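Lab notebook: predicted structure, single chain.

Context: the supervisor wants predicted structures on file for every construct in the current expression panel, including those that have not yet been purified. This is the next one on the list. No modifications to the sequence; it matches the entry in the shared construct table.
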Amino acid sequence: MSEVLEKEITLSYQKKIQEVVSEVGKVVVGQGYMINRLLVGLFTNGHILLEGVPGLAKTLTVKTLADAIALDFHRIQFTPDLLPADIIGTMIYNQQKGEFEVKKGPIFANLILADEINRSPAKVQSALLECMQERQVSLGDTTYELDKPFLVLATQNPIEQEGTYPLPEAQVDRFMMKVYPDYLDKESELEVMRRMSNMNYRHEIRNVLKREDILAIRNQINNVTISESLERYIIELIFATRKPREYGLNEEANYIQYGVSTRATISLNLAAKAIAFFNMRDYVLPEDIKEVIHDILGHRIILNFEAEAEGINSKQIIDSVLRKVNINKL
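Prediction complete. Output recorded below exactly as produced.
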């Protein structure tokens, strides 16, 4: 394939991503940041955890994104009485045949919306997170691979604590990013009000991307260039959360119980490549890393009780790390 043709193909895929954003934007107003991060997860094979107060269009955004891409979509409402079999499926006895048959659960789809994941007990969360990690399901004596692409987009409500089962740190770590959608600005809120006040308002979302397009875009992102200096920059950022005193983060060291895992290293690299690709580049800049670092490291830095008592959060720690780790000195 000639270099000119390859660039044309890349450009066409980049334009399709912009079309997806435009289609979702016809329904979802003012949540560009959330849409962007969902697309990063989709094209880098990374699951996304959305945490925000009710009414920020988390569920609507995921459903609309599913409409804009030709993938199988299932929504699972997590409740305290949910069982693992309700997600992955089970074996059912067929009296006519005299044998057990497999009844597959809703997990067998490309795009899974796990709504209010923290409302289900640990065994249900574990069943889902095992599927996320292994991308396969065992029913009876048979193991079934999940279709590609397979992406879990989970939501949780940070306000209500009664009747919830918080995800353990080791399980939260399996999400590539934890995204915090925020309230809309005044103009966006006004636009939403005008749309939703019209009970006849309808908008058809067209399919922009097919399964093969998504897999092709993943290959395109995989080929985005990242220099060795930026690779080492990522490593230094990661190690600054693990050994903060070695980086002059003496005060921050008093608040960090555990630094981030190796999954953070991998995810930061992939997400930076995706951001570069979205911005019509075939190479990564330091700004791409800085743009996604809070989403990737924020839920992985485990702070101690002293940090909680003094109102210190992971965002402040990451900001300090970015100030101390200077790429120009590497």
